[in-house]
Design brief:
Radius of gyration: 22 Å
Number of helices: 13
Structural class: alpha/beta
Distance between the termini: 42 Å
Strand content: 15-25%
Largest sheet: 8 strands, mixed
Oligomer: single chain
Strand order of the largest sheet: 3-4-2-1-7-9-10-8
Bound molecules: aspartic acid, magnesium ion
Helix content: 25-40%
Mean pLDDT: 93
CATH architecture of the largest domain: 3-Layer(aba) Sandwich
CATH topology of the largest domain: Carbamate kinase
Order of helices and strands: EHEHHHHEHHEEEHEEHHEEEHEEHEHEE
CATH superfamily of the largest domain: Acetylglutamate kinase-like
Low-confidence stretches: none
Length: 412
């Protein structure tokens, strides 16, 4: 059994979906096909929600209509009827003022629509396959927008559904799940990779493949750096480090479920299915040999100092991280001195509330608009070069890894 995950870019056009069918038809094994929302649909659905939040129904409807029109255009090109789209009107939101809850009820429609279209097209192409509803099979708690998966319940539900359908190929949604009482949830942006890994783990897959619009895992983002090289194989631990540092290639949560069962993860180019791509597995030889550059954008650096000038480490660490955890901030870097602690976090909509709370307890400084550059396998020369002409607010270096927090205007 294999798991193939196709991201939004892979299913953004009718040609993309036809390519999915070609790739799927070349696999003779049992196959779980995990799909993301098509193209930039998730962003578009976020705009619908933003419009609903400010009661701009005209704008919400306009954004929604263009999402439907985009999918209908793809259906036309695939010679499928518009009725394939399972949700045609903006879903009723029980409590529009609860942003996170509403987000999940609305934004999950992107994957429900894309998976339905992909299943319909595969079936039309002669590939017998069943559609699975992950809002019923991936059981989560109620942490909307960052739902925690109930692993044992989900494993059982998924196994039963697969056994019952008795099809060789199944099409299902990444990114979304559901609570026991029937509400839809999402796992966090880019969460489809994580779904693919969980499905691989639950069903003891032989491998998981993430099909992408890049040749595999590169040592830097080709949009930012010239002369990138492909990393043909990586150990799980290296892959975790890379994705955590901000490499956009795989979601950080993807690795653990695979590592636990020693399931290899392939990252392959969607446009060239025969190419080797990159393989992440337990037996990969040694650390990655080339320097790897990873950008994590849109960071906020928060520095706290106890108001009474107590020694910060002993007394404030717990309070700081309790606040960070409760406001769901994602920490990318930590640094402490005797009287201050600095953390950099992703700039999300939760940051403002966390800052207000921190300011009531500590003396607080913060800087927005930063990027964290991590260089793995660095040398003093590389570091010197990267520092030049940049305003660096904080840096951390060990023998082989450097992390620079940089003012964003200077990054690229
Ligand atoms: N569609 C979701 C997103 O854009 C999930 C994913 O693509 O992995 O974040
Ligand atoms: Mg994606």
């Amino acid at each position: 059994m294999r798991v193939y995950k196709f991201g939004g870019a892979s299913v953004a056009t009718s040609e993309g979906i036809q390519n999915v069918a070609r790739i799927v038809s070349q696999c003779q094994d049992d196959l779980m096909v995990v799909v993301s929302a098509m193209g930039k649909t998730t962003n578009a659905l976020e705009r619908v929600l933003d419009a609903l939040m400010i009661d701009d129904m005209v704008l919400a409807q306009r954004e929604w209509d263009s999402i439907i029109a985009y999918h209908e255009h793809i259906l036309d090109q695939l010679a499928l009827p518009h009725e394939v789209i399972p949700i045609r009107t903006i879903p009723e939101l029980a409590d529009k003022n609860d942003y996170d809850f509403s987000y999940d009820q609305l934004v999950s429609t992107g994957e429900l629509i894309s998976s339905t279209i992909v299943q319909a097209y595969l079936a039309q192409s002669g590939i017998e396959c069943a559609w699975l509803d992950m809002t019923k099979l991936l059981r989560t708690d109620h942490t909307y927008r960052d739902a925690k998966v109930d692993l044992s319940a989900s494993e059982q539900l998924l196994r039963e559904a697969v056994a019952e359908s008795a099809k060789r190929v199944h099409v299902l949604q990444g990114f979304i799940g559901g609570t026991a009482d029937g509400y839809r949830t999402t796992l966090g942006r880019e969460g489809s990779d994580y779904t693919a890994a969980l499905v691989g783990n639950f069903l003891n897959a032989d491998s998981v493949t993430i099909w992408k619009d890049v040749p595999g895992i590169l040592n830097a983002d080709p949009r930012l750096v010239k002369n990138t090289v492909l990393i043909p194989e990586l150990r799980y631990s290296d892959a975790v480090e890379l994705s955590y540092s901000g490499a956009q290639i795989i979601h950080p949560k993807t690795i653990r479920p695979l590592e636990n069962k020693r399931i290899p993860l392939f990252v392959k180019p969607f446009g060239d299915p025969q190419a080797a791509g990159s393989k992440i597995h337990a037996d990969a030889k040694g650390p990655v040999q080339v320097p790897v550059y990873i950008w994590r954008k849109n960071q906020v650096l928060i520095t706290i100092r106890p108001k009474d000038f107590a020694f910060v480490l002993e007394e404030s660490l717990n309070a700081l991280f309790e606040i960070i955890h409760r406001h769901r901030l994602k920490v990318s870097l930590i640094q402490a001195s005797a009287v201050t602690i600095s953390v950099s976090v992703d700039h999300t909509r939760y940051v403002a509330a966390a800052l207000t709370e921190l300011a009531s307890r500590f003396t607080l400084n913060y800087n927005e608009g930063l990027s964290l550059l991590t260089i793995r396998g660095t040398t003093p020369e590389i570091l010197e070069q990267e520092r030049q002409g940049r305003e660096i607010l904080l840096s951390q270096t060990t023998r082989r890894t450097a992390r620079l927090l940089i003012k964003e205007t200077h990054t690229c």
